[in-house]
Design brief:
about 240 residues, alpha/beta, Rossmann fold, 4-stranded antiparallel sheet, about 30% helix
Length: about 240
Amino acid sequence: MENIIEIKNITKSYYVGKVPTKALDNVSLNIKKGEILVILGASGGGKTTLLNLVSGLDKIDKNKNSKILYENKDISKYSDSKMTKFRKRNLGFIFQTYNLLEHLNVYENVLVGSSLGRKKVDVHSIIETVGLKQHEKKYMHQLSGGEQQRVSIARALAKKPKVMFCDEPTGALDEKTGKVVLQSLVEANNKYDTTLIIVTHNPGIALIGDKIIKMNSGKIVDEIINEKRTDPKDIPWG
């Protein structure tokens, strides 16, 4: 598989007064098209910082050797407005908080997602992919937390993103519900070939990935190629 993203020597520092603290320290990584990449590590290790930089939600420290290449285009040099357009056209996001529209039903929430993309999609099919076909007409207050998270996955998929960023997508869910949500993500990867980048502190979740990187103190300390993904229903939890 070809690389969809190439990260080269990126660093991110935050300042307290004039004193810099490195949240990310000279990180390089390749991500293949259609891959499930899991970024694993404890809180404060640099996982979310890496996700925010690769997705263009934050900017890397300026350095002539630092690049984030997306299909061979250096998006780290994009202006804010160009980056916003790029994210809208190419990227999807799933967070712990669902950020759904309470006054719209499931179908309508996913339809909003489809309106942000450039390609026409079958909203009913996407809702079926995440296992919510029978809930299309329900409103958010009628759904469980796991069902709402699956609506947020469907809404992100409705843009037909090339890459989807998932920041602790099961962090607020119990084991049973979390595994259902992970199954929806794997199903989306299989059906649409969407590249998934999942941030988690849970080692069990890492087993669903094709590649696992472990982070500590702003560095990648290990990179593991997983020859065979584990089905989400079979992973250890916690």
